Amino acid sequence: MAQRKLFLRESSGLVKNASLKDLVMLNVANMGAGLAVFEGISPYVVQGSLLWLASLITFLITLPLVFTYTYLLLKMPRTGGDYVWISRKLNGAIGSIMGVAFAFNMPPYFALSAFFSVASINLVFLELGTLQHISSLIYLANNVFVNPYGVLTLSQELLFYALAAISFLIIILVNIFRPKWGFTLTTILGIISSLTLIIAMIVVAVNIPDFHQRIPQFLTTFNITGTITPFHFSLPATLYMVPFFMSYAYIWLYAGPAVAGEAKEGSLKLNLILGSVLTFIMITFPFLIMDLAAGPAFNLAYYPSFTYNFWSVAIYLASNPIIQWILGIGLIAWNYFIMAFGVVVFARYIFAFSFDRLFPAIFAKLNKYSSPVYAHILDLISTLAFLALPLISPSGALALYSYTPLAIAYLFIVSLAGIKVGLNDNDIKLLTMSIISAVIMAVVEAALLIPSNNYSFSVVSSSGVNWIATAYIISLVGLGVISYFLAKYYRMKKEGIDISLIYKEIPPE
Q1: Which GO terms describe its cellular component (predicted)?
Q2: Which residues, in sequence order, are CB contacts of 5 under 8 Å at separation 6+?
Q3: Share of the chain above pLDDT 90, in %
Q4: Which residues, in sequence order, are bridge partners of residue 460?
Q5: Residue ranges of domains in the chain
Q6: Distances (CA, A) of 443 to 82, 251, 412
Q7: Is 18 exposed, middle or buried (0-12, 13-18, 19+ CB in 10 A)?
């Protein structure tokens, strides 16, 4: 009983509201398939690569990580997920420092989703307005839901920021006053988003026979230009795209584990693998269908335009105005789907830090609706701060992707925790999968840090060090270091509690 007093209280107070369906949808949102086939990956394609094959390879090589996450999730189903596993099974200080760094790595991703939510509305309104000759939609696209990559006036920038911020605020308020609705909102948005993506795949597939007869009008209408060169498949070029798929989709497995303390009985075992398989389908098949319809050479010529992508082509090919609207709403829904999951998950990490006395106790305080209200408020403040970066400079959106090297390092550490648990439990399967996962994460990290590879989300390139990205990563890790040692000093001096002892046991439910 004395050990229990190390924690803030003897029970988390969170309610088990999350079903298997909720957890799967959280994981699908975490991996963002709908935005990966929008403007997340295809504009950065390199000659000789096949995106559908790169997606398949990425899915296969991340399966060991999925296994490691699933095993540790079942062994330690607690709020905070991988932060708890690392801090309890590997090292308390490392778990705390990297847990904080990783958690505050999330708001930039949510800020990007808020940023692209308005960008997707711009594309949908502009495309539907043009195709259906609705001048009011074109006006809204050009004056209200403006293209963030264009030249914006100050008033347009402020309006853009306000629209994105209001969307995020509404989702925050839902989670504060009805936390169960937070799961429900994510699930509903996930079902809408996933179904519309499947409909989009069907639309493009049905139009494969006459694709090249119809698509020139689309290119002309939207002034899309490109140079088609003969396609020669390159395995190195395809492998080069793997980190893009990792960065945008397949490695993000923390959502379900982070809310495991609120999971209903029997909902944990399959949630990660189901989420990964659904993501694989919703990323791989759109790119495959696009190659079957247009041919790799054609796609490689026009993908870099940003305007030519799976979603915009599907909307155009749909022809039927009702189906076009359904697809447009589905694309917009993906952004809000991701924001909805983010609000749920980030607050759980902050709650876990506070419950362990790493953060101030106020962040583990629940309101009368059993919602970690102050953790949500911190999320709101952090995300709104990062949301300003893409508006200060459109290239700021790419700068926010620099979280990838830190995320890969974090997953390497999760794999090390899996190795240690596998050794301690004499579990050969876990040990094997965790070793494979650790090797893969190390190889990917090395690829990102080779300057000549020139990954847009790395901290180094052939032109030198990206000091903004480097400072960003250092600041995140620095925040973790400061949080841990400040908490250790304060708790010992003021409360007589050595927080390193907290990490010697699993937190109560």
Answers
A1: plasma membrane
A2: none
A3: 65
A4: 465
A5: 2-504
A6: 21, 14, 10
A7: buried
Alpha-carbon span 347 to 259, nearest angstrom: 10
Cα gap 119→102, rounded to integer Å: 26
Give 474's pLDDT tier (boundaries 50, 70, 90): very high
Averaged confidence pLDDT in the chain: 90
Pairing of strands 460-461, 464-465: antiparallel
Q: Which residues contact 174 (CB under 8 A, 6 or more apart)?
A: 181, 182, 185
Nearest Cα neighbor of 180 from 370, 408, 374 is 370
Amino acid at 173: L
How high is the pLDDT of residue 163? Answer: 80
* Cα(284)–Cα(35) distance, integer angstroms: 13
Q: Which CATH architecture has domain 2-504?
A: Up-down Bundle (1.20)
pLDDT tens digits, 371-419: 889 999 998 888 888 777 655 555 555 555 677 899 999 999 999 999 9
Report whether 23 contacts 284 (CB < 8 A).
Answer: no
> Residue 281 above 80 pLDDT?
yes
Instruction: Identify whether the C-beta of residue 229 lies closer than 8 Å to the C-beta of residue 301.
Output: yes
Q: Compute the average pLDDT of residues 470-485.
A: 92
pTM: 0.91
Q: For 332-352, what is the mean pLDDT?
A: 91
Joined tokens for residue 453: 């590879």
Closest listed residue to residue 196, CA positions, set 306, 286, 307, 305: 286
- Contact between 38 and 117 under an 8 Å Cβ cutoff? The reply is no
Helix (H, G, I), strand (E, B) or coil at 465: strand
Mind listing the pLDDT tens digit for each residue in 204-230? 999 999 999 999 999 999 999 999 999
Is there a contact between 26 and 268 (Cβ–Cβ < 8 Å)? no
What is the mean pLDDT of the segment spanning 225-248? 94
How many whole angstroms separate alpha carbon 406 and alpha carbon 414? Answer: 12
Query: Three-state secondary structure along 318-359?
Result: HCCHHHHHHHHHHHHHHHHHHHHHHHHHHHHHHHHHHHCCCC
Distance separating alpha carbons of residues 100 and 482, to the nearest angstrom = 10
Residue whose C-alpha is closest to residue 331's, from 507, 113, 182, 15:
113
| Rounded Cα distance, 284 and 273, in Å | 16
3-state secondary structure of 7: coil
The residue type of 40 is G
